[in-house]
User: Fold these one by one.
Assistant:
Number 1:
Amino acid sequence: MMCRVLLLLLVVLVARASLATTQSGDARQLRFRADTRTFKIVQFTDQHYGEGEDVAWGRQQDINSTRVMRSVLHHETPDLVVYTGDQLTGNNIHDNATSYWRELLAPTLAANLSWAFVFGNHDDMPLQPGHPQHGLGSDTSRAQLLAFDNQFPGSLSFDENPALPGVTNFHLNIKHSTGNGSTPLFFFDSGGGTLPEVVHEAQVDWYRSLPSTSPGIAFMHIPLQQYTTAIASGEGCFGMHHDDVTPQARDTGLFRAFVDKSDVQAVFVGHNHGNDWCCSLSGLWLCYGRHT
Ligand SMILES: *[C@@H]1O[C@H](CO)[C@@H](O)[C@H](O)[C@H]1NC(C)=O
Ligand SMILES: *[C@@H]1O[C@H](CO)[C@@H](O)[C@H](O)[C@H]1NC(C)=O
Ligand SMILES: *[C@@H]1O[C@H](CO)[C@@H](O)[C@H](O)[C@H]1NC(C)=O
Ligand SMILES: CC(=O)N[C@H]1CO[C@H](CO)[C@@H](O)[C@@H]1O
């Protein structure tokens, strides 16, 4: 039970999230709760809204996902929700990806919470060749999905450096309840769909260029190659391991950068649905969020 709770939530150090009202300046300022000095994050991942939309189990699966998220948010009252990719199965969706995105957000909107997300390999995956509507321009791009998400006041994701590969590369700071310090949350677009499945070297350079602060958490969809090492020879492993680790296409040095900068204490990913384990490797927790 303890493991399940740990895997659904990451309890970092901090204050109550200030509820964002715009996309600029202080609106993105998250804070540790002053009373408990905690900051609770719920991770949701791999909901695959729109998968099998033409068949009954597809719709039922979406309804079930919504029910699970509503229930988790009701019981946990987090300060922030983080979605770690494959929110949609773009390659099954005819022409209404944003309607599914709205469905995805419904529980978080109803709970009046802020959220951040990264893209996975399915969110903008084109319709399969041979699909009756393939090539008709109905596919929804990463940029379009982000723009749709950004219309809501609680949306905190942004394209911090548009020159980089991918769209959801950004960081947020959680202000400490006392003093001037903050704890960072880093978000990486690990590609897939219309992009190679990797956090590119340019994204790693960008991360290295950010000033180091107290250790926070990193989120991406596709696991780093070190996840394979971690489950074989990492320390303190716990949780379910029912899927192979299918990591990024190559090691672009992000793990090394995390270790060198010491401002990330844990990495949380999705992608391999049967895994919800955490293992420690070189002092860094590498964790999965299973399949919400
Ligand atoms: C939806 O949830 C119900 C109740 O838990 C379960 O019986 C059913 O198999 C689920 N359907 C799908 C498609 O996941
Ligand atoms: C998206 O379109 C499909 C096909 O027309 C439909 O079955 C489905 O209900 C729609 N989904 C949403 C969330 O609007
Ligand atoms: C916080 O920053 C302000 C302005 O830079 C400074 O005056 C103050 O001493 C700092 N407080 C702490 C606790 O470091
Ligand atoms: C994150 C979020 O949706 N915040 C909203 C919570 O409710 C207040 C009052 O209705 C809104 O002003 C916030 O934008």
Number 2:
Amino acid sequence: MRKMKLNVYFLLVALPVVLASALTPTRQGKTCTISPLGGGQDDTDQVLDAISKCGKGGHTVLLPGDYIITRKMTWDLQDATVDIWGYLDFQPDIQYWLNANNTYRVVFVQSQASWFVLTGSDFTVDAHNSGGIKGNGQLWWEYYTSHVKADGDGRPISLTVYQAKRAAIRGFRIESPPFWSNCVAESSDITYDGMFVNATNTNSTFFGKNIVPNTDGINTFRSNNINLFNWDITCGDDCLAIKGNSTNIHASNYTCRGGNGVAFGSLGQYVDLPDYVENVLLEYFTMTRISHDAQPNMGSGVYFKTWTGVSVGLPPTGGGGGTGQVKNVVCRDFSLNLVDRPVHVYQTNGGNSSELQSSLQFADLSFSNWYGTADTNRVIDIECSPNAPCPDIAFKDFNIHLVPSNLTARYTCINVVSEAGIPGPCNATT
Ligand SMILES: *[C@@H]1O[C@H](CO)[C@@H](O)[C@H](O)[C@H]1NC(C)=O
Ligand SMILES: *[C@@H]1O[C@H](CO)[C@@H](O)[C@H](O)[C@H]1NC(C)=O
Ligand SMILES: *[C@@H]1O[C@H](CO)[C@@H](O)[C@H](O)[C@H]1NC(C)=O
Ligand SMILES: *[C@@H]1O[C@H](CO)[C@@H](O)[C@H](O)[C@H]1NC(C)=O
Ligand SMILES: *[C@@H]1O[C@H](CO)[C@@H](O)[C@H](O)[C@H]1NC(C)=O
Ligand SMILES: *[C@@H]1O[C@H](CO)[C@@H](O)[C@H](O)[C@H]1NC(C)=O
Ligand SMILES: *[C@@H]1O[C@H](CO)[C@@H](O)[C@H](O)[C@H]1NC(C)=O
């Protein structure tokens, strides 16, 4: 028992530290240290100055306090360390940010906008669990209770890691993101160790409604070797969304409070760009329903979704018809609290059943040591496309209790080639 504990300790705590310290640059050149100007003054210039002086081969320190940020920023870091003890406070001038000239469009998928981009190589950004980003999302969320929102409409991603290599983001907090809190795109060998996100409406007019959709914890896209360790996400959408061409993704010790759960997708949105997702390990996850006033949804443990096999409209809002494959996904040690659909696969996003079905395939998915509760009877619902039936779906030690306990669990397997370990008969009807 003791030995076992030590091993788990090594995997969860020691190994990430070993990996992350390997990423810490050894060369320490100049140091630039700044404090907030205060009095409502704009800090954007002094932050960018510090990064341009010390962001290559140096060390930048942002002392505690709120840094007022009024325009988009890219930090191009090479062989550098940044310590953030305070918050980058992105001012909520909604119309300013929605003007496409005032954000970056580096995230190709769904043409999403970014107000803050980290790029470069061999760097560490450490916010020491005491700083990060204030997104001032409350005003944005309320604005969108009476305006139409759509993918690619310009709502900014809070922290974008783009075309970065060998980097670590540590102890980082994102308070009230207007939209996705994180995205890692076109990057490799990135470790996030300690990420806290809280997208919670505080206006009582909207208690019990999810006015914080799209506040995803992170979207991964066109990236390889991404570690997501020690995350704590309160949001109204996917706490982790794995999009096209994400490979070798390892997430461990990840708490999702409310929202939709972990998503693979949506995939197959781009008819001309196949999506490949391979080698994903998700372990030690907790999905927990929170107060209904704060966030009414707790959708899934893990769900997988593709567009249909036809392209209807164009991205960012329409799409479909894209091909590809998701394979070798391990989801183990999941604790659920009152989740609606623990495991769900569907291939009809953005379409209807009369359309050509998707040919993007899900293969080799395993779910082991799942425990806790679901609050509907749709415990396992796997609805694969007839054009891409799912092989090698495996369950082991899957013990989800239903609340109320007089519900009878339903298991659905449609177009599943081979499955093992589902705790009851898996029917081919919904
Ligand atoms: C964006 O910038 C371009 C070039 O300066 C300008 O022509 C265009 O009007 C601007 N767009 C908006 C929405 O302000
Ligand atoms: C998130 O923010 C809400 C509103 O401020 C707060 O009540 C809640 O405790 C926060 N969640 C966490 C996990 O800190
Ligand atoms: C809550 O939202 C309502 C409706 O948009 C608005 O009228 C009210 O001022 C908001 N309350 C606070 C405290 O901001
Ligand atoms: C899991 O992550 C939380 C932060 O979300 C951290 O406080 C806790 O120490 C981590 N647990 C382990 C075993 O590392
Ligand atoms: C994914 O990678 C493949 C090459 O392996 C490429 O053909 C495809 O266009 C990429 N898809 C996306 C969405 O970038
Ligand atoms: C289903 O999709 C087809 C093809 O895109 C479309 O013509 C039809 O109107 C759709 N039907 C419904 C009920 O949405
Ligand atoms: C199941 O339990 C719930 C709450 O305990 C109760 O309201 C409901 O009537 C029960 N349903 C059946 C079919 O017994």
